[in-house]
Write a structure and sequence with these properties.
Distance between the termini: 42 Å
CATH superfamily: Jelly Rolls
Number of strands: 9
CATH class: Mainly Beta
Structural class: mainly beta
Largest sheet: 7 strands, antiparallel
Number of helices: 0
Helix content: under 10%
Shape: globular
CATH topology: Jelly Rolls
Low-confidence stretches: none
CATH architecture: Sandwich
Strand content: over 45%
Length: 119
């Protein structure tokens, strides 16, 4: 068993603090990691985010908003919803106020496997 205290997690802010991330990375485990992500506005600011490697399970923890998958209609999100995003699937979030999500990735997410594409 591995345990990580929230105080040991790494926190980052992006896009003028519109996106705040707390990452839980187990140092000896590359098969999975997770993050608490708070979004205000749109993520990414333009285009779509793509994770080329990881399967991602997302849980809507608080707030509301929409998720857009490239070439699909936006879908409404509310607390308790779950999303499964496959590797290579372009997506974007738009928060109605603030949207807090839990982002669980397998294998573990890293910045090198993610990119932003144009619309």
């Amino acid at each position: 068993m591995n345990q990580m205290k929230k105080s040991e997690a790494e926190s980052h802010s992006y896009f003028n603090e519109a996106v705040k991330v707390t990452e839980f990375n187990f140092l000896d485990e590359q098969s999975i990691n997770d993050a608490e992500i708070n979004i205000r506005g749109r993520y990414p600011l333009a285009g779509f985010a793509v994770n080329d490697i990881s399967m991602v399970l997302i849980s809507i923890e608080s707030g509301a908003g929409t998720i857009s998958i490239k070439e699909s209609k936006p879908r409404e999100l509310e607390v308790g919803d779950r999303l499964l995003i496959k590797p290579g699937e372009p997506y974007a979030f738009t928060a109605n106020g603030e949207l807090e999500i839990r982002y669980i990735a397998t294998p573990a997410w890293s910045p090198e496997q993610s990119r932003i594409i144009e619309e």
